[in-house]
From TrEMBL, chain A:
Sequence intervals crossing the membrane: 12-34
Protein name in UniProt: Rieske domain-containing protein
Lineage: unclassified sequences, metagenomes, ecological metagenomes
UniProt key word Metal-binding: yes
The organism of origin for this protein: marine sediment metagenome
Gene3D superfamilies assigned: Rieske [2Fe-2S] iron-sulphur domain (2.102.10.10), Single helix bin (1.20.5.700)
Pfam families, A to Z: Rieske
Amino acid sequence: MKLKHSLFSRRQFLNGLLGGWLAALLASFLYPVIKFVFPPTREPDQVILPFADFRQMGPNSVKTFLWGAKPGILKKKDDGSLLAFVGVCTHLDCNVSYLADQRKFFCACHDGWYDENGQNIGGPPPKPLRRLVVSIEEEDLIIKREGEERVEDL
Amino acid sequence: MKTGIQSWLDERFGLSNITKFLKEKTVPQHKHSIWYYTGSAILLFFTIQVITGFMLVFYYKPTLEGANASVARIMTEVPLGWIIRSVHSWAASFLIAFVFIHLLSTWLTKSYRKPRELTWMSGVFLLAASLAFGFTGYLLPWDDLSLSATKVGTDLPRSIPLVGAWVTKLLRGGEDVTGDTLTRFFGFHVSILPVFIFILLGVHIYLIQKHGMGLPLVAEGKKEKMREIPFWPNFVFREMVVWLLLLGILFSLAIFFPPSLDKAADLMAAAPEGIKPEWYFLFLFQTLKIFPAKILFLNGDTLAVFLMLLAGILFFFLPVMDNKPTEKKGRIITIIALVVIAYAVVMTVWSLL
Ligand code: FES
């Protein structure tokens, strides 16, 4: 069927074409800008540390290690087993410290408290400290993300 | 008499329009006139920031390895470096203090009413830019305090759905605060923010010239003609007296109380006890501290961020909402202004206890 009248004028059509073209041009300029300002950062899948460095730890003590750009905290429990955490507060990202005498993790930024297992027990932190999975393989201490461990378990 | 050079330039630039305008400009005199001086005080401190900023940039190194040491060098080795840094740091505080005063006086005298809504809105952007200058500048010495403040401040946007995590990443230059964040903040502080603030200042000052000095609501109702003084030279000379006074106070404080510099920040170290942001963020800091971990089903900090955003938006649109300042609505908004001021003061004092 042929329409008697066009649905839009030639001018509207050309304006639309021009506008669309300009928008596409703008997007093609913006895309590399946006790509550029976000550097690729990836959390490590695992870190491997020499076990020898950590063997001397006494019970109820902590040692830090590098988890990507974040501090990781390795904690030896009273029974000698090891726990690992990402050492940043779940409130607003400050680095936490372990107060061995009180058996608590403390965040100085807004007085946040966690118990010795990383459970949030006071102040603004909404979640427990993030856990990492520790395993020992011969002379290596292997620290992995929790999620991945679950995948392996399946 | 115009000299040859003057008229030569005038034919090309047409500056006589501007000088004519300034000669005819008047400033009303009434019991709230004192607030008119806050604007030029801000410009005074801004100029000082530009000049001392140019100087500091000659020695400052915006890298993880160099930042703290270069500031230490400015404080100890560079001739008069400690005074320059001290003035830059104190003038920042003065600038922000006067921005607050300027803005609150506009709010309470309701000078933002028609046709000055856009003057207010550009002012709110200027406030945001000033705070951003303060926030980015605080990191540059790269000591423990500044690191924790930056971690918290850049983590806040993360609570905003969809875009939040990207904003955090954009500000930090990655997932975490690192040396890249420092370099990026330096970029914000010395190149991006200055461009914005010059544009905003241009708009703001143009609007003020276009509409003339606003009258406080209480003065406007009066029937008799208000006393006015010429802007040039009478008002400018009075301003100069104020500037000299302020400069005296600024330099005295800068000489007797130079800012400290702690040891270089360690990205792996725990946040030091007693961390605090700059004084103008203390009320936000205290708010974050007292918000509980969970409120209903929301995280406390998420709710706090939403409230801040909402407050910012309401603040921006204040002149549109406060469009009947003489009626009941206007009086309620004045009361809200007083409550907001009281809240900020109480929170600030509390955080210092
Ligand atoms: S960042 Fe740890 S309590 Fe706020």
